[in-house]
Please model this.
Amino acid sequence: MQHRLVLFTGAMFSGKSNALIIATDRARQVLPKCVAIKCKLDTRSSNTAIVARTGLTLPADVITDRLATVQPQLGLLYSVDEGQFFPDLLPFWHRVVAAGAYLAVAGLDLDFRRQPFGQVSARRLTGGMTGAACGD
Model:
């Protein structure tokens, strides 16, 4: 695994939790341990697992409303669902980097008014290509 941060962001029902579960399952093939973190505030479907709308589930190793309770360890992947609900997501990311661990986060970046939501932020870019840039 080469990336230290993977961020799955998008609108509601866009498949963020599903992508997080799949990425975590793949990482388990190469990493010694993956720690699934579920936000205590998320009580939609299960109190003990991360659940995607597709039916995929990932048992939660940690259920909390503060990431300060989690101490990252070298080489482990920390998979955080509903990242927008964690007010200490950015300090946690700094601790993950310092520990030499990996972080995957699924979360909303915008609310229903398309305003920034929580600490998950993404910039959407658009652009165009010219013929010369396409290998001419």
In short: Residues 80 and 105 are 5 Å apart (CA to CA). The beta strands are 5-9, 34-39, 49-51, 57-59, 62-64, 77-81, 102-107. DSSP finds two helices and seven strands in the chain. The chain has a mean pLDDT of 85.
